[in-house]
Each structure stands twice: as structure tokens, then as C-alpha cells.
Amino acid sequence: MGVMILTEIDHIAIAVRDLEAAIEYYRDAFGAEVHHREIVESDGVEEALVKVADSYIQLTAATRDDSPIAKSIEKRGEGLHHVGYRVDDCAAALEAMVAAGATPIDEAPRPGSRGTTVAFIHPKGSFGTLIELVQE
């Protein structure tokens, strides 16, 4: 058995059409406040992070019609989009996943929000879950 490379759940990403409405709902339902908010131009998304212990709920909405979030909502509707797993070394984790048979979306780690380094893994080959590796 190999060394455990996941350090914790970084975030659960939920694709929404209306980010303001989602923020308001989480505030009303859970008393949750936005901890961090950012537009990631490269991915065509705006995200609002609600902190839960050392993890986040990432409410994410498209900023343009051709973004992955827009396509996902068009295809499947709003809801769970991906799970972000925190790792110490994104490149090593990506390499380990590919060696285990994962299909990478990102061939190499790239900049993510909050100054993180990220890489996405395709749901095909990962039991139907889109996975984001996140190195802080």
C-alpha cells in the first residue's frame, strides 16, 4: 500500500446559476458568511467560498457561456460539480493518480484561486467524480 497523499477535503464545489441567490441561501439556511470571493478568468467562473472548519463549500457560477461550469449546468443542472482534495504536492499527486489509471484534464499543475496550485482529474476513470487536486 502506498503513502496517503490526501491531507484533507479542500472544498466541495456546487455549480449555481445565480451566485448572489446561493450566497443568500447559505447565509439564511446556515448562518454562513463568505470567507473568500474571486473571479477566475481562466476558468470563466466566479466563486464564493464558505469556510467550514478547515474546508470550504465553493459556490461557483459561470462568468461566460463557454465555461466548464456553464456547460455543466446546461447538461446536468445545478448541483454538486466536483470535490477538491488538498495535497502537499500537486505534481506528485497528479503523477500518482495517472499512474493509478486516472485520466488527467490538466497535464500539469496550474494556478488556481486563493494562490493555490491545482490540477483536475476527469470523472471517467475516477468512478464518476470530477476531482480537483489543491496545493496551498
Helix/strand layout:
Elements: E1 6-15, H1 19-30, E2 34-40, E3 45-52, E4 55-62, H2 68-76, E5 79-87, H3 90-99, E6 110-111, E7 117-121, E8 131-135
Parallel strand pairs: 1-4, 5-8
Antiparallel strand pairs: 1-5, 2-3, 3-4, 6-7, 7-8
Strands, count: 8
Which overall shape is indicated by the principal axes computed on the Cα atoms?
Answer: globular
Supply the CATH superfamily name.
2,3-Dihydroxybiphenyl 1,2-Dioxygenase, domain 1
Q: Strand order, main sheet: write it out.
A: 2-3-4-1-5-8-7-6
Mean pLDDT: 96
Q: What does the largest sheet look like?
A: 8 strands, mixed
Radius of gyration, in Å, reads 15 Å
The CATH C-level name is Alpha Beta
CATH topology: 2,3-Dihydroxybiphenyl 1,2-Dioxygenase, domain 1
- List segments where confidence is low: pLDDT < 50 over at least 5 consecutive residues: none
Task: Report the portion of residues in β strands.
Answer: 35-45%
